[in-house]
Amino acid sequence: MADGKSGKQAAEEFVSRSGDRWGAVYDKKEYAEFEQALDGAYTGVGLSAGRSGADGVRVTRVRPGARRAGRAAGR
Asked: pLDDT tens digits for 13-39?
């Protein structure tokens, strides 16, 4: 960038000036993590989860390794 800022820094400044309190800037890795969180997939446990009711969480998918360990969807 001409003023010495990175592309991300310039984008963050632009978004902060927009007045949109929900606006955000993500780099490639941050966006992948954000997208994964929206999908309900979490690394390392072999489960996918989703909302259940107003404040609950329900297991929606169980990967083979977690299934062998005794986990099942719906619990």
From this structure: 998 998 888 888 998 999 888 887 777
The whole-number average pLDDT for the span 35-58 is: 74
Q: Which two tokens stand for residue 61?
A: 């998918």
Q: What's the distance, CA 2 to chain centroid?
A: 32
**Alpha-carbon span 3 to 52, nearest angstrom:** 48
Q: Report how far residue 66's alpha carbon sits from residue 71's, in angstroms, rounded to the nearest whole number.
A: 6
The first and second tokens of residue 31, run together, are 């966006």
Distance between CA atoms of residues 61 and 41, nearest Å: 9
Residue labelled with tokens 């072999």: 46
- Residues 6+ away with beta carbon under 8 Å from 21: none
